[in-house]
Amino acid sequence: MKKLLIASTSTLHGSGYLDYISEKLSVFFKSTDTIIFIAYARPSGLTLAAYTEIAQKAFDKIGKKIIGLHEFKNPEKALKNAKGIFVGGGNSFVLLNELYKLNLMQALKSVIISGTPYLGTSAGSNLCGPSIGTSNDMPIVYPPSFEALGIIPFNINPHYIDPQPESKHMGETRATRIKEFHHYNSQSVLGLREGSFLEITGDEITLKGTLKARVFKQGVLAYEINSGTDLSNFK
Amino acid sequence: MKKLLIASTSTLHGSGYLDYISEKLSVFFKSTDTIIFIAYARPSGLTLAAYTEIAQKAFDKIGKKIIGLHEFKNPEKALKNAKGIFVGGGNSFVLLNELYKLNLMQALKSVIISGTPYLGTSAGSNLCGPSIGTSNDMPIVYPPSFEALGIIPFNINPHYIDPQPESKHMGETRATRIKEFHHYNSQSVLGLREGSFLEITGDEITLKGTLKARVFKQGVLAYEINSGTDLSNFK
């Protein structure tokens, strides 16, 4: 039975790494003391070791040991044996590229479907949709495909931010970018604001956190959904 | 002799399309009454025809006729015969994908090097660097490569915006994204603020507009350069 938390962000403004979701994680990962950390998204170009240390510090608070997937000689086997997986944020292109390069996409998908608890934040959440086509990241490496795990049938836009009417910046708003996405892609997109996350248990998908999320469907005006909304049939 | 204007944006806040640069364009395109418009970046998913109309309205003010490249049966020949080219902004992935699909990259590069005056804004400016790897756009289509025209030896980051210390948003700042870029790519990046543009005449590259630009070099702390700076040897 699938078991995932798909979060917009790892960190809320003014608080520490994973702090806002720490209690939740304690319950979510209750059946294991050890979590495999996939550090490949490398935010700010951090080394895999440095990023893993940051994750370890956050999980220390709930008594869990973190082991970087990059520390294993056989990462595919490590995924298969994992009792919990955390894919941290950073750059979605780098993350996807590395997973393809290491030939780990199928193994990762397979263990998630089999029920290994999976936490994704930001790029780690993008990874769960059909593609990384609604990532906010800079295309700093060229992955062999934009196709992602497809655990959920819709794309995530993490760190979703509303248009700011007072802004004088002429770059596209997030909403405009997602509208452009729907000229070339049919899957729906869920704009997850920072603090929101999806909880997936089996086939049930629920919006969690205190905020609303924004739904973008091809050919339909975008609209808001409340926390608690059942998204099991959303696509 | 190469002749290009590479602009951060088509439009400044509170003014019309290309208004801020209109006088400059009148001089830049003085040797032709007709300009070929490459509309493929399709901002907001506009049709090619609708986007071309917007460009035509702006060029009406300086008495130039715009013809969309998509209107030609043989676009390669149209590029070869062009006396002026304008590549408008929108989505860099879509723009690059279309140019590769139509097999026009080499022809476009060749006429620019031969001296056909080229105006690029936003995505049309990204196109001039070695790659679109410092685009701000959403990866809504998967192009066969991120490699761009390489007319200049450094990448452009158009619509460059400084980190906003008062922001509570936890998405990466532009500066962080470019720092991440330099973990995987060696070419320098010029952050062009809205209103800035590069003027290229032969081998001379000069920063124009009233604003400073921000220079990002691999392994070097980012720094500012003034308008008027000679970038001919910048790489």
Description:
Two copies of one chain form a homodimer. In chain A, strands 3-2-4-5-1-8-9 form a seven-stranded mixed beta sheet. Chain A has one domain (3-225): Rossmann fold (3-Layer(aba) Sandwich), CATH 3.40.50.880. The first copy, chain A, has 235 residues and is an alpha/beta fold. The radius of gyration of chain A is 17 Å and the shape is globular. Helices cover 25% and strands 19% of the residues of chain A. The A-B interface holds A 9, 11-14, 42-45, 90-91, 93-94, 132-142, 145-146, 159, 161, 168-172, 176-185, 194 and B 9, 11-14, 42-45, 90-91, 93-94, 132-142, 145-146, 159, 161, 168-172, 176-185, 194.
Quick gist of this model?
Two copies of one chain form a homodimer. The first copy, chain A, has 235 residues and is α/β, with parallel strands linked by helices.
Rg of chain A? 17 Å
Largest sheet of chain A: 7 strands, mixed
Order of helices and strands of chain A: EHEHEHEHHEHEHEEEEE
Number of helices of chain A: 7
Can you give the helix content of chain A as a percent range? Answer: 25-40%
CATH topology of chain A: Rossmann fold
Distance, first to last CA of chain A: 20 Å
Number of strands of chain A: 11
Unreliable runs of chain A: none
Most extensive chain contact? Answer: A-B, 44 and 44 residues
Structurally, how many domains make up the residues of chain A? 1
Taken as a percent bin, the fraction of beta residues of chain A is 15-25%
Give the class-level CATH name of chain A.
Alpha Beta
Mean pLDDT of chain A: 96
Features:
alpha/beta; seven-stranded mixed sheet; 235 residues; homodimer
